[in-house]
Amino acid sequence: MDSTVSDSTAPVTFEVLEGRHGRIGRATLNAPKSLNALSLEMIDLLQEQLSAWQGDATIQAVWLDANSDKAFCAGGDIVRLYESMVATPQGERNRHAEAFFGREYQLDHRLHTFGKPLICWGNGIIMGGGLGLLAGASHKVLTETARIAMPEITIGLFPDVGGSYFLSRMPGKVGLFLGLTGANINVSDGLAIGLGDVAIAHESKAAVMSALNELNWDNDAQRHDSQVSDVLAGFGLAADALPQSPVTEHRGEIDRLCQGDDLATVVQAITTLDSDDRWLSKAAATLARGCPQTAALVWENWHRGADMTLADVFRMEWRVAVQCALHGDFQEGVRALLIDKDGQPRFKHRSVADITPAYLAEFYQLPGVPDPLADL
């Protein structure tokens, strides 16, 4: 297949694959040293090119992957966000956080509303911002090595990039549990809760792309999605070739632990869990040492997001994310995990019971600046 390739040294590369009967745009995350963590430059490159392909009638579909066998995308560039928080005086705007979250969520919204088949090849680590990209794709492929998480409970942020939307729409209380605990999930979990459409072996990637390039794209755009789905299904791994799903195995326990009417009750139930199961025990321990502010935001967003449109969710999350950059715990969580690496964050609150409604309400206020997502 012929292709036209962009600058191969850029943090995101682009090419147009000339198939037998049509053209597919390919975008590849190309920052393997940082596990393809999304920088503002990467977000802007993706937004510009996807916008062009969205309006180009000769592009029938888009393929999104990464130049790494280890990770699709391990999140956002939170070290740069940390630097911006350190540099922002008390009471002043954090313009980098405003821009980063605003443009990231605009990109995520474009993916969700792209209107053409958009295939995301989810291999290896898929966390935070990477999950935002995957969740927005119309065709979500997970490989056998997919390792998915929204681990913001450890750093004082919250599961953003549309997490308030897709976590609240997962079966039962699964989304709430994953948000509170930052639990890692595998390919089988992803399929079970809607974060993946099909599981395909990573070694089949070239063959899948070749098969897509053989498609005869007709003038009925409504059929393009089903054509792509049929190709992907032809490469799908059998269920017995996949690992066990901890989420499915523990579904009843997850719903039981999260059935309380208030956050303190749910946190108490999870953190005092006495279980021999390693996956459940690790999830409980992560919440126990996590950020109470994040737990409160997860609880609030999970309940609010269930009744909101996708655009309204992104607008809400932008306010909350910018406020997180101004309220201290996010900065402290990143410091302890990635900067000083002492593993001893000094969060503002000892427990979720110490967080007042008035303090929590501050995160949902527009931070005195125009909303960049007002026109979504």
TrEMBL record:
GO biological process, one term: L-valine catabolic process
Record-level Gene Ontology MF annotations: 3-hydroxyisobutyryl-CoA hydrolase activity; isomerase activity
One Pfam family of this chain: ECH_2
The UniProt record lists the keyword Iron: no
Source organism superkingdom: Bacteria
Occurrences of domain Enoyl-CoA hydratase/isomerase (ranges): 24-363
Reaction(s) catalysed (UniProt annotation): 3-hydroxy-2-methylpropanoyl-CoA + H2O = 3-hydroxy-2-methylpropanoate + CoA + H(+)
Known EC number: 3.1.2.4
Keyword annotations: Hydrolase, Isomerase
One GO cellular component term: cytosol
Protein name (Swiss-Prot/TrEMBL): 3-hydroxyisobutyryl-CoA hydrolase
Organism, scientific name: Alcanivorax dieselolei (strain DSM 16502 / CGMCC 1.3690 / MCCC 1A00001 / B-5)
Classification of source organism: Bacteria, Pseudomonadati, Pseudomonadota, Gammaproteobacteria, Oceanospirillales
